[in-house]
Amino acid sequence: MNTVKSLTIATKNNHASKIITQQDIQSLSNMLEQLDSWNLVLNLLKQFFNNNPHPLDEKQVIREYYVCSKLFTNFHNDFYRLSKKINKQMEELQQKEQI
């Protein structure tokens, strides 16, 4: 038997509040962790684009630029996918039954 915990939030003015399950919270938390996991890579990209070594080694810049472009493309795709997923989850939470 699969049990689902739910969190009931009471308001001070007894306004209707929504039932949010522990599973909903965990799902959002997981998506935020996935986004947070990009911090290290984004810092490396920032470092690459902020560093301007003199004199420039064209071959090295081309190699690093290619790698950075691939990292950014992966980040962008993952960010887009996760933001759509989070928005969908938020819409579902907003449609939840009020108590």
Give structural notes:
This protein is rod-shaped. It contains 3 helices and 2 strands, in the order ββααα. The protein has a two-stranded antiparallel sheet with strand order 1-2. The chain has 99 residues and is mainly alpha-helical. Helix 1 (22-36) runs antiparallel to helix 3 (58-94) and helix 2 (39-50) packs antiparallel against helix 3.
Short description:
With 99 residues, the protein is mostly helical.
Provide the residue-averaged pLDDT: 80
**DSSP strand content:** 5-15%
Describe the main β-sheet briefly. Answer: 2 strands, antiparallel
What overall geometry do the principal axes of the alpha carbons give? rod-shaped
Give the termini distance in whole angstroms.
25 Å
SS field, number of helical segments: 3
Structural class: mainly alpha
Low-confidence stretches: none
What pattern of helices and strands is seen along the backbone? EEHHH
Describe the strand arrangement of the main beta sheet, using strand numbers: 1-2
Task: Spell out the key features of this protein.
mainly alpha, 3 helices, single chain, 65% helix, rod-shaped, two-stranded antiparallel sheet, 99 residues, 6% strand
Topology, pairings included?
Elements: E1 6-8, E2 19-21, H1 22-36, H2 39-50, H3 58-94
Antiparallel strand pairs: 1-2
